[in-house]
């Protein structure tokens, strides 16, 4: 399994018991969805390794307490400390309406209410305080904030994200 076929679920942040249990911080608004997983991929080096889960439960709402079948001691738990957890993309819950996963809209056209086609989504920059679409049109790059006010409709069937860009933004990049 390649990382490109998976989504980042979270990270192992601490040991929980001397029997090898760990706590994982999940990167989700709905951690309860992942409470009864059978397995997860653990990133060790550059390799995703499947780990089978003996039992798991939510701990203090956003942490998942996990007992892996293969991890039976503190020393074995130390070997996976800080490791990222991944699941196959097919396990992501389906989103509808104007909610979308960043990977889902790659290659979609950006259609602005005033300017029409303003480019194709090439990526999403979510390392800043405000996530941004990275789009390209005629060799020029356009950065557009991802907000509920700007994204007006996600048309999955036709691969178009309809937007109302802030006044002057499109001219700044494409003008």
Automatic annotation (TrEMBL):
GO BP: any one term: rRNA processing
Alphabetically, the GO molecular function entries are: ribosome binding
Q: What does this protein do?
A: An accessory protein needed during the final step in the assembly of 30S ribosomal subunit, possibly for assembly of the head region. Essential for efficient processing of 16S rRNA. May be needed both before and after RbfA during the maturation of 16S rRNA. It has affinity for free ribosomal 30S subunits but not for 70S ribosomes.
Notes concerning its domains: The PRC barrel domain binds ribosomal protein uS19.
Domain named Ribosome maturation factor RimM PRC barrel is located at 103-169
Q: Name where it's found.
A: Cytoplasm
Q: What name does this protein carry?
A: Ribosome maturation factor RimM
Please report the organism this UniProt entry assigns to the protein.
Answer: Cerina litoralis
Enumerate the PANTHER family for this protein.
Answer: RIBOSOME MATURATION FACTOR RIMM (PTHR33692)
Which Gene3D superfamilies does its entry note? PRC-barrel domain (2.30.30.240), RimM (2.40.30.60)
